[in-house]
Amino acid sequence: MTEQSGLTAGTKCSGCGIVLQTESTELPGYIPAQALERAPLLCQRCFRIRNYNESSTVTVDQSEFLRLLSQVGDKDALVIHIVDLFDFHGSVISGLQRFVGNNPVVLAVNKTDLLPKVTNWNKIRNWVQKEAKELGLKVEDIILCSAKQNQGFDRLLDIVGSMRGNRDVYVVGATNVGKSTLINRLITDYSDLEEELTVSRYPGTTLDTVSIPLDDGHSIIDTPGIVYESRYTELVNKQDLASLMPDKPLKPAVYQLNAGQTLFFGAMARFDFIEGERQSFTCYMNNRLNIHRTKLDRADELFEQHGGEMLAPPTKEHLADLPSWTRHELRVSKGKSLDVFISGLGWIKVNSDQGALVAVHLPKGVKVMLRPSLI
């Protein structure tokens, strides 16, 4: 920190102990410059907990997060792992088990409000259970919930109440999965913070976990959100996030395609149907994202001429900031019900028993995979 910022280098938050900084709201230890005249000095996260009983999410990169997570296995803790149902394979912490050891894990699957209202929720729960097992996760319970609609959180709070015993509660998750909403509900239900935090310093670590004291002497440990750069949402300009992250139930878009046809999803992604009988493909993505159909042999030319303009978002300016595209070829076997999943963008369900050869074009590094159909 510079003297010009009004903050002496190494000054720490009196709440959690993190080194304070004034440059970035998204990094640990942020304090607004105008708050430097207040006493005691509190990072924005601690200030919100103390004054509003609310926690805000900060982020750290993957290696820093995993180093932080490795400490949990040495403690007696209940771990709540919150993931985004819309981006399940992009937001799940697949290596979680080896870090938390024998501590029980509850999997909170958020954003159920985004799926169509006619969804078979027993099927979704079974799907989550199976995929979690495939990823090596051992979970005590799975809670389907919606932070936006306040659904499922009472059940989650009941599970926490019955399972935590004499344990602290660690809440972990990737960015933009709804972790701060869950933390705020836990604060409201389990901790009389207004009185307690005005008279005591609540402990934390230098990596910006915040330990929020509960009435029984234990704590909720709020960890930073982990950044997975394989998620499209971590790559785009903030102005384009609204086009990726849906806020209303998905309206599936069904396209009957012949081999040799292409779908552009704005200028975010391209889907080629290369080989197979005429069949339908169902797209589950933000309804505000324009889908453009064209012939495969015209796709390169169309993107070169209209990428960032007719094919948008992103705009030409923001498109230039993304990594160059990589082509992924995928074969769907006959008789399989599979999704072509694109982390942060959504998925395309292949609806034919005949099989298909497809290709997906995406910015380099974005996760794409075949998975059993969610719906």
Walk me through this protein's architecture.
The protein has eleven helices and 18 strands. It has 375 residues and is of the alpha/beta class. It has two domains: 55-226, Rossmann fold; 234-372, no CATH class. The N and C termini lie far apart (50 Å). The strands form four sheets. Strands 4-3-2-5-7-6 form a six-stranded mixed sheet, sandwiched between helices. It has a five-stranded antiparallel sheet with strand order 9-12-16-15-18, with no helix packed on it. A five-stranded antiparallel sheet has the order 13-10-11-17-14. Strand 6 and strand 7 form a beta hairpin. It has helices spanning 44-52, 62-69, 88-91, 96-100, 121-134, 153-163, 179-190, 193-196, 241-244, 296-306, 316-319; strands at 59-60, 77-84, 105-110, 141-144, 168-173, 210-213, 219-222, 225-226, 253-257, 261-265, 269-275, 279-285, 291-295, 325-332, 338-342, 346-350, 356-363, 368-372.
The CATH superfamily of the largest domain turns out to be: P-loop containing nucleotide triphosphate hydrolases
Number of strands: 18
Enter the CATH topology name of the largest domain.
Answer: Rossmann fold
Helical content stands at: 10-25%
**Gross CATH architecture of the largest domain:** 3-Layer(aba) Sandwich
Q: What is the CATH class designation of the largest domain?
A: Alpha Beta
- Please tell me what the overall shape is: globular
Structural class based on helices, strands and sheet pairing: alpha/beta
**Strand order, largest beta sheet:** 4-3-2-5-7-6
**Largest sheet: number of strands, sense, barrel closure:** 6 strands, mixed
Distance between the termini: 50 Å
Q: Radius of gyration, rounded?
A: 23 Å
Domain CP-type G: 66-229
InterPro entries: G_CP_dom (IPR030378), GTP-bd (IPR006073), GTP-bd_ribosome_bgen_YqeH (IPR019988), Mito_lipid_metab_GTPase (IPR050896), NOA1/YqeH-like_C (IPR048422), P-loop_NTPase (IPR027417)
Protein name: Ribosome biogenesis GTPase YqeH
Organism: Paenibacillus wenxiniae
